[in-house]
Specification:
alpha/beta, TIM Barrel, eight-stranded parallel barrel, 12 strands, about 45% helix, globular
């Protein structure tokens, strides 16, 4: 799957992943009103509005980007109906030819981590028949429990030819409380990056590993260092746009050929219609506004090469 991701990035000339992180505040009122009228102003109505909202965005951007990243918490908050909306979103994205990165941030002891890996990247066997769970192509994982939490994902990735992105240096303001702590003279995030490189060396695609890393765009000074520590790891870069990351700060995350990193934008795209720049599209043009935001982001990133 890492090979396919690289191929799709080259084909679209867009090292971009769109975060499908819906909330009711971001959603156009007319979509909420429509689905609340049909299904009720309840969890079901909210979940159905999410699916319709997502489909509109996906239809508008599917030919522009290689990948989307639904954040599962944004769906789980609506309970079982929200989880069903997550699965429907994954399936719809696949039907449009998009690679799906499940932002699930899982990590636990071996048996539990194995269940997460099977549920999201593989499937369970029941009476000799394999049934797929959520079916993403990549997943984000938390390395805090060490190799016990990572190896089950690696085993599934090896079998299914899928991939993971390990949290190394996250984009949130308080990430340094733990991630910047010095251990034997090196910050913890650098030591995690060294592990990512080690784990990934045993799980390679053609040019890059199935084991990638998450390093926030809000810390551009670390991009070059992490690129050297993890030369074969694809880097998922959150924090562009709404969180303060800029295109000028992204260059160190990439290799000289313009590959090696993929940049995430969530509300900056899916709620672009709420921004002054795209206000002319209006609520009903939210999907067209998202498309224009992707085009603008692509141009912004590509100018740095």
């Amino acid at each position: 799957m890492i090979n396919k991701l690289v191929e799709r990035i080259k084909a679209t000339n867009a090292p971009i992943v769109v975060g499908l992180d819906p909330t009711l505040k971001l959603m156009p009122n007319y979509l909420k009103e429509k689905n609340f009228k049909e299904y009720g102003a309840n969890l079901t109505g909210a979940a159905r509005a999410i699916v319709e909202y997502n489909k509109g965005i996906v239809d508008a951007i599917a030919d522009l980007v290689p990948c989307v990243k639904p954040q599962i918490a944004m769906y789980e908050q609506f309970g079982v109906e929200g989880v069903l909306a997550f699965k429907e979103t994954v399936d719809y994205c696949h039907s449009k030819g998009l690679i799906v990165l499940g932002d699930i941030k899982r990590g636990d002891i071996g048996s539990t981590s194995e269940a997460y890996a099977v549920g999201h990247l593989s499937g369970v066997e029941i009476e000799g028949v394999k049934y797929e769970g959520f079916g993403e192509d990549f997943a984000t994982v938390n390395p805090y429990l060490g190799i016990d939490g990572i190896k089950p994902f690696m085993d599934v990735c090896r079998k299914e030819k899928k991939g993971i992105f390990v949290l190394v240096k996250t984009s949130n303001p308080s990430s340094g409380e733990f991630q910047d702590r010095l251990i034997d003279g090196k910050p913890l995030y650098e030591q995690v990056a060294m592990k990512v490189a080690e784990w990934g060396a045993d799980l390679m695609g053609d040019s890059y590993s199935y084991v990638g890393a998450v390093v926030g765009a809000t810390y551009p000074e670390m991009g070059a260092a992490m690129r050297k520590v993890m030369p074969k790891a694809y880097i998922l870069v959150p924090g562009y746009g709404a969180q303060g990351g800029t295109a000028d700060g992204l260059r160190p995350f990439f290799n000289e050929d313009g590959l090696g990193a993929i940049v995430n934008s969530s509300r900056g795209i899916i709620a672009a219609y709420q921004q002054e720049k795209y206000k002319s599209f209006g609520e009903t043009g939210y999907a067209d506004a998202a498309r224009q935001a992707v085009i603008d982001m692509r141009e912004d990133i590509n100018r740095i090469f």
